[in-house]
Amino acid sequence: MYNMKKWILIVAAALLCSCAGDREHILKVYNWSDYMDMSAVEEFEKWYEEQTGEPVHVIYQTFDVNETMLSKIEKGQEDFDVVCPSDYIIERMLRKDLLLPINHDFGETPDYIKEHLSPFIVSCFDKFEGGDKNANDYAVGYMWGTVGIIYNPKYVTDEEASTWDIFRNPKFEGKLFMKEDPRDVFSQITIFLHHDEIESGERTVDDVLHDSSDKAIAEVEEYLKEVKPLVAGWEADFGKDQMILERGWVSLNWSGDGVWARDQAAPQGVDLKFSFPKEGFTFFFDGWVIPKYAKNPKAASYWINFMNRPDIVIRNVEETGYVSCNAAPEVLEAFTDDSYEPIDVSYFFGPDATEVCTDPVLYPKRSDIERAGMQHDWGDRSQALIEMWGRVKGDNASSMTIIIIVGAIVLLAAAWFFTTASKRRRKSHRR
Ligand code: SPD
User: Fold this and answer.
1) Same structural domain, 270 and 125
2) Which of 27, 45, 108, 229 has its CA at a distance of 20 to 30 angstroms from the CA of residue 158?
3) From CA 72, how far away is CA 79, in angstroms rounded?
4) Are the C-beta atoms of 195 and 279 separated by less than 8 Å?
């Protein structure tokens, strides 16, 4: 028996060692769901081996909200090699010293990042509030976009969809979808509630977005409690499908999901549009970063570089509907389409791009971008927002719990009734 135990331990230790040894050939990627052409993952494995002579196997996992990803790294210290948080979470990770700098030493391999990253993205990353660190040294933009409203013009007018107030309109009861993302929802609603001050110049969108006071949170809480009875669902990623199926008419959503849903719905005869509400809105930047618990930072920086190779950029944009942070000429060409009116996207592609025929949801025109603001890390105040969200959503949870408990009691009672009745029948048969 003792020998048997000893052998089990030896085999387990050998297995553990061999796994640990393999870790240098494994790349753990943690990305948003529905955020990549998955054939690029396999292609990366081949490309990496060609470039470095070393094999690599990608383990690809997904998340739906920033906070899940952050908690796995911050609290769980999980060893993801490369992850894709949004702007304000990148700031938090910088401030908490959770990131490694990106190494641009690619040997003979071209540096696609430095070659083609949009100057707009670099200047926005310069404004990240990461303490004494510049976000451009620790993060490379992957996709960016805006938060707005996907709507179905069969049921909703352009006028109705031009304001965040649409979520309080009883006409759309049971047809409204809200993002299950406290921070993105908070930001749009607080902009809406303060649009008078923004219009009068008393405050800027940025001032309003920095305001994490109890008062600001209470105002949004009140608005959301009013909205809640009208909402059909709070969704992390299924809102776009609900819109295609016409179960939803209005959805607070990301522009990339707007493009994707619109393009999927059109062949089915469903028309979907995306609006940039008049009161203002936020834009977001999701970027690749290497957490400090990474075990394969070399393959991680090659991954980030590969994600900026123009053909991979184009495939990922086509697959997801989101707009890349990469402004290579091939990308501009791929998304130029004469069926659109010319718009000014020089802020993104450079001074020559003042009249480009491109999709204005994918690449918003300069005047729309000027109405948007960026979200920042709230530090310890983030907790107050999460608590408010819990209070707004909480009633749902308790009524659901009551339904489950009552359902379980009814089922148990029915089971007890039928078992006793059949026992009684069998007894009376025997008699
Ligand atoms: N399908 C997931 C797309 C991820 C988009 N990220 C948006 C982040 C906004 N804070």
Assistant:
1) no
2) 229
3) 9
4) yes
> Residue 288 to residues 87, 118, 168, 207: CA-CA distances in angstroms?
10, 15, 36, 27
Atom of ligand 1 nearest to the CA of 184: 10
20 CB-near residues (< 8 Å, 6+ apart):
none
Ligand 1 atom 4: the closest Cα is on which residue? 32
Q: What is the per-residue pLDDT for 322? A: 98
Question: For residue range 317-369, what is the model confidence (pLDDT) as tens digits?
Answer: 999 999 999 999 999 999 999 999 999 999 999 999 999 999 999 999 999 99
Q: Are residues 267 and 156 in the same domain?
A: yes
Q: Are 139 and 99 in contact (CB under 8 A)?
A: yes
- Kindly state whether residues 152 and 107 are assigned to the same domain: no
Check residue 201 and give its pLDDT. Answer: 96
Instruction: Please give the Cα distance from 137 to 388 (Å, whole number).
Output: 34
Strand 139-151 relative to strand 250-254: parallel, antiparallel, unpaired? antiparallel
| CATH code, domain with 226 | 3.40.190.10
275 and 394 housed in the same domain = yes
**Ligand 1 in contact with 35 (CB < 6 A)?**
yes
3-state secondary structure of 265: helix
Residues of the chain with pLDDT under 70: 1-21, 395-411, 413-431
Length of the chain: 431
Q: Tokens standing for 428?
A: 């009376």
Percent of the chain as helix, strand, coil, to the nearest 5: 55, 15, 30
188: which residues sit within 8 A by CB, 6+ positions away? 147, 164, 252, 277, 281, 282
